[in-house]
Design a protein that fits this description.
This protein is mainly α. It has two domains: about 375 residues, Sodium/glucose cotransporter (Up-down Bundle); about 55 residues, no CATH class. It has 21 helices and four strands. The protein is globular.
Length: about 600
């Protein structure tokens, strides 16, 4: 069978499995819908957390960014992994002991204020929608290539699927669906990595192959990382392993992006809520251990996949005739996610540093089946920003998905990778949509607007909110503000600047007041959102010389977090202390029960 037939088969079977699990585990109670009835075993919750965690950004985009930026891309590995450790050790057990369904629930009760609860709901919804935009784009990228539909149609298909199993099974259905999705995505991620590692370095374990010598070709006998450094030097790119050199992020920006990802991780509501699904604090700690193990398998494999893909991409395309371009290139060319412009008219693909052209091209098909730059983009070739030797545009989000094809692996492996990418995107999207629906139904509807609503009515609110969230998420997936991992980095920055300080202070400071928490959340997320909007949309061409202190929009959440802390503690110092019962609750929260 060809790639498309295999994809229909494997993706179709996986979708049937997900919907079947949601049907079997469908819920009729709010406890089941929000926190799976507190009955998920620790190891299953660890797998579900791993799937929830390893979104399209981790599966599709992280290795793609590392593949293009080398050392700079390590911020995602360090930030996300370190952030999970921070969450598991510093926050999760205490939040589980507090016993509430959601982060806004914690904020509202700890800070004894409905206003604080509403502000937390606003932050949770804002962060979740920013995050889910990246997931929907990931779904669209996979569908556009492997099922030969446009990205918009792919996003809509993903919306329908997520709506079915998220609203039918709630957290219980999502949890057990995510267990299945973890199995699919990790198998899909490891098989091509193992195969390519063995072909390139002779080692079956990718983590070992990553640091080994190449066994064939012109680089035989040279360590893989040394070989790719030399390739980059020859083509005018910054060294792949180079640290804080021209063309890579500065030290201050690397630090801030890493910190924003770490503390943003600890403040992400869709991850925190997973620790409410287990029976007790002991189970929460064990599920954190299992999740870290399952996450580590993929995260330690990602740099190897990124490097393998980078080497194979350059060797199969640079200075090759366009007429003799490989089949994988022709397939991805139809998606407009890879493109070539013949600047010097020699018919040879030249790949080097610098922009290929200004913006993604629209294509016009010629009679021989090849593609040329569309009329709307032709004038851009005369633009000075298009000068230079580079003639190739490659969307970073395709690297993991295209890697098996570039390495000429069997069609079923290519299809399996597509199914894994969909599993990663859909699992996280479902968790985020549940956060949005529970925030609207439980934190606003039940807690504030209509406290006496019945359980059946609350479930109806939750499912209606999930439907509305799916539609809005689809819009953001069709109109994303950047690469998948880049969009997700914005979400982490927003979480870092809004939730992390008030959660930390809510657990470890009896004195922090509701006025301080409200002021801190609004100032932190407000500053971060404005900064991201200004430099990403209003002035997208700005560089490090125009950023505040050289900090990129992906890393500004670190400064937003500091602002949140300062404002919260300053306002707290000038406002009355919390009630005695709240202070006693915080005191008891940090110590084991008798």
């Amino acid at each position: 069978m060809d790639i498309q037939s295999w994809t229909y088969l494997i993706v179709g079977l996986s979708f049937a499995l997900y919907i079947g699990i949601a049907f079997v585990t469908r819920v009729r109670s709010t406890s089941g819908f929000y926190v799976a009835g507190h009955g998920v075993p620790a190891i299953f919750n660890g797998m579900a957390t791993g799937a929830d965690w390893m979104s399209a950004a981790s599966y599709i985009s992280m290795a793609g960014i590392i593949s293009f930026t080398g050392f700079t891309g390590s911020v995602y590995l360090i930030g996300w992994t370190g952030g999970y450790v921070l969450l598991a050790l510093l926050l999760a057990p205490y939040l589980r002991k507090f016993g509430k369904y959601t982060v806004p629930d914690f904020v509202g009760d700890r800070y004894y204020s409905d206003v604080a609860r509403v502000v937390a709901v606003m932050c949770a919804v804002f962060v979740s929608f920013t995050y889910v935009a990246g997931q929907m784009r990931g779904v669209g990228v996979v569908f556009s290539r492997f099922l030969e539909v446009d990205i918009n149609t792919g996003v809509i298909i993903g919306m329908v699927l997520v709506f079915i199993y998220a609203t039918l099974g709630g957290m219980k259905g999502i949890t057990y669906t995510q267990v299945a999705q973890y199995v699919v995505l990790i198998i899909a991620y490891l098989i091509p990595a193992i195969a390519i590692s063995h072909v390139m370095t002779g080692h079956w374990i990718p983590q070992i192959g990553f640091g080994a010598k190449v066994v064939g070709g012109e680089n035989a006998g040279v360590y893989l990382l040394e070989a790719i450094d030399q390739i980059h030097r020859d083509l005018g790119f910054p060294e792949y392993t180079g640290t804080f050199i021209p063309g890579h992020k500065s030290m201050i920006d690397m630090f801030c992006v890493t910190l924003a990802l770490m503390v943003g991780t600890a403040g992400l509501p869709h991850v925190i809520i997973r620790f409410y699904t287990v029976k007790n604090v002991h189970a929460a700690r064990w599920s954190a251990f299992w999740a870290l193990l399952f996450i580590g398998i993929l995260y330690t494999t990602a740099p190897a996949i990124a490097t393998f893909a980078r080497v194979n991409l350059i060797q199969t395309l640079h200075e090759k005739s366009y007429e003799q371009r490989p089949e994988w290139y022709k397939s991805w060319e139809q998606t407009d996610l890879i493109a070539w412009v013949d600047k010097n008219g020699d018919g040879i693909i030249q790949y080097a540093s610098g922009p290929a052209f200004a913006g993604k091209p629209d294509f016009q098909e010629k009679e021989d089946g090849s593609y040329v730059l569309g009329a709307a983009q032709q004038p851009l070739l005369n633009n000075k920003t298009s000068d230079g030797p580079n003639e190739l545009y490659v969307d970073r989000d395709i690297m993991v998905l295209a890697n098996p094809e570039i390495a000429q692996l069997p069609a079923w492996v290519v299809a399996l990778v597509a199914a894994g990418g969909l599993a990663a995107a859909l699992s996280t999207a479902a968790g985020l949509l549940l956060v949005i629906s529970s925030s609207m139904s439980h934190d606003l509807g039940k807690s504030i607007i209509k406290p006496n609503m019945s359980e059946k009515e609350e479930l109806r609110w939750a499912r209606t909110a999930a439907g509305g969230a799916v539609i809005l998420a689809g819009y953001f997936g069709i109109n994303p503000p950047g690469f998948v991992a880049q969009v997700v980095a914005f979400a982490f920055g927003l979480a870092a600047s809004s939730f992390f300080p008030v959660i930390i202070l809510g657990i470890f400071s009896k004195r922090t007041t509701k006025e301080g928490a409200i002021s801190g959340m609004l100032s932190g997320i407000g500053f971060t959102a404005i900064y991201i909007y200004y430099f990403k949309f209003h002035n997208p061409g700005a560089g490090p010389d125009q950023w505040w202190f050289g900090i990129s929009p992906e890393g500004i959440g670190s400064l937003g977090m500091v602002i949140n802390f300062v404002v919260t503690m300053t306002v707290t110092a000038f406002t009355p202390a919390p009630p005695a019962e709240v202070q006693e609750q915080v005191e008891n929260l940090r110590y084991p029960s008798a």
